[in-house]
Amino acid sequence: SGEIITDPVATSPVAKPATQTTQSPSTSTPSKISAPPSANAAPANKGIIFSTKNTQSNDYAIIFGGKPSKSYGAIYMQKQCERYLPNKNVIYSNFENTVESVIEAANQKFGKNINVTSVSGWSKGGQNAWNVIGKYPFVGLMDPSVPSNVTPQITANNVGLSVSRYRNGGYAKRAVQLFQQSKIPFVEAGEYHYMAGGAFLKKYANRL
Prior knowledge:
The chain is an alpha/beta fold. Helix content is 23%, strand content 18%. Helix 4 links the parallel strand 5 and strand 6. It is globular, with a radius of gyration of 16 Å. The two termini are 23 Å apart. The N terminus is likely disordered.
């Protein structure tokens, strides 16, 4: 049960992950995301994009991309999200980085400490966000990969969720269950995984 939002990104060929199927879910099942990254994953502070619109502000939202980062990391997320965040300072990152390493990279780049207003993540990057619920004012989850060993305390004030009917190959189902148990509404994004980002930002952009 959630709010149905149609995302214009859904019609954009560049937005559709290669792992998705164009057939009906009743006749074809999209592939699940693969296992966690290996030890030779990209080193910290790589795959980070700084999008600063207001140089007078230290406030930044952090958004993590999906897997693989080469196709769905920081560059992909910037392309999908910027239209919804025209006035917001944002740091886009590959999922291999941690929230802490992104903040450290930002502090070094700007020569001062940034203020993180939110942490969000799509797909595999949703795990980065899920792990810091309660540590930042707002956490955004876009069809997230949810770790089974972390059960955060959530409220309607500190977290937002969007999910596709595909549910990220099942990895987002635990997040849906937690939201339902907590009686917190969430956004139903549409049929496919890639729709969750735009649908989330239509609803929660002002919270980031």
